[in-house]
Amino acid sequence: MSRIKTFNLPDLGEGLTEGEILAWLVKVGDTIELNQPIVEVETAKAAVEIPAKWAGQVQAIHHPEGATVEVGTPIIAIDTDPGAGPLEAPSTTATPSGDLPTPSAASLAAVEVAPAEGMIEPGLIGGAAPGGRTAVLVGYGPRTTAAKRRPRKGAVPAQAPTPTPAGVDHEVVVGDIPAASSTTPAPQVHDRRGGAAGGLVLAKPPVRKLAKDLGVDLSTLTGSGPLGSITREDVQQAASGSVAAAEPVAVTSTATSAASFGADREQRIPVKGVRKLTAENMSRSAFTAPHVTEFLTVDVTRAMKALERLRGRREWRDVRVSPLLLVAKAVLLAVKRHPMVNSTWAGDEIVVKEYVNLGIAAATERGLIVPNVKDAGRLSLRELADALNGLVQTAKSGRTSPADMSGGTLTITNVGVFGVDTGTPILPPGESAILAFGAVREMPWVHKGKVKARQVTTLGLSFDHRIIDGELGSKFLRDIGDFLADPEAALLAWT
Questions:
Q1: Coil, helix or strand for 128?
Q2: Distance, C-alpha 400 to centroid of its chain
Q3: For the purposes of burial, counting CB atoms within 10 Å of the CB of 481, is it exposed (0-12), middle (13-18) or buried (19 or more)?
Q4: Is the pTM of this model over 0.90?
Q5: Any idea which residues carry the catalytic annotation?
Q6: Nearest CA to 415 among 429, 425, 428?
Q7: Distances 339 to 243, 343, 354, 364, 460 between C-alpha atoms, Å
Q8: Are the C-beta atoms of 223 and 120 separated by less than 8 Å?
Q9: pLDDT means over runs of 10, the chain (495 residues)
């Protein structure tokens, strides 16, 4: 029986297919215990620590931090009996970062690394590179003679280039050899310092064609490309009149320089993990379930006063009480009065659920997640407050488990914490309703026949119109509003 056990990335629940390695908690050579956390992995739903299946010594780590690994792929090798003596040395060994085996000195010596500076654009020939080497295309050795084109049929062979005086740094530009020419022109020499002998400058054929089409004389330009070559941008700027003739360029301030819109001012963020799952779910839901959104503005002054009285009670003094608690209670009571809202579209049937797994949308550093309070309808108000507070704290710390985010039946998104009045939220897949709870603001409101300053909020309810028609959605939203307008009266009337 082999001492070396290979640990594969497990399925962390809900049919997840891959995970990103956030951090290794061990390194090669470490002695680990059974169930000791060895790696932190971010799945499409949460970041979780995975424990070791065996005790022993870490022999190899197959993937570096930041790598995305499919479920079932080996990630670490563990020697389960390190006291039995040394292992037979393998021919190649994995490194802790998951790199390939180190090449031998002989193989490294046989590799020629292209210079990082002074490189010539593809299509340009020539030039001494830093260190005295000649820059060439990969796969072609350096030449000591001038580059030539294959003569066309009937063309006169080109003469050898005229020797250049020592100390002159130059480039050879070879043009097409005209057919049936009685004389062969000598190669033109381009001075890298900006001048041009024979009226030619260093530029690619496409750039020359562009200059011809736009009527730009290349000999009047100072190139901004490698080795002073003329680029397409140089030609286009000259055509628009923004570049002067080939004279010493004056230094301009950054305030007057033209704005640039290139890749160097763009940021590319990989879409993976929680953000990738959220994008897939929102796209699927938005184009599958026919969404309808209704709005209701409510005077919640009495509800805010009720919260203040609740905070003053002795048994509630150590509990964080927020308006979200009363909104959650209002939703749970409204579901009891309208059970069809808590259901799922299942193709040929509608599944009405007698339990409410109440989801609370939470914004985290890794993206939007929606953990839920299991069977929230059975909880007392104090139990619901504790569950909501625990759920939010776990989400902020990034420790929400996949189980906490699965099985939701109805969701609340509290956009009011961002100072937003309301929104048109998209349904989480498999749910038929989601409520947006807006900011509570002091606003002028007609109360008992007089305009007074009252605390007001706006609710937005999105629902699946295949299940919930306008009447049912309106009644459900109205009941939530009635509870928030007068929670004590609603509790007496409905319970």
A1: strand
A2: 20
A3: buried
A4: no
A5: 465
A6: 425
A7: 72, 8, 8, 31, 19
A8: no
A9: 85 72 90 90 76 90 89 90 72 46 46 40 42 40 45 49 45 42 44 45 77 81 80 81 46 53 78 74 80 96 94 89 95 96 93 96 81 95 94 84 88 94 92 96 94 96 95 97 95 89
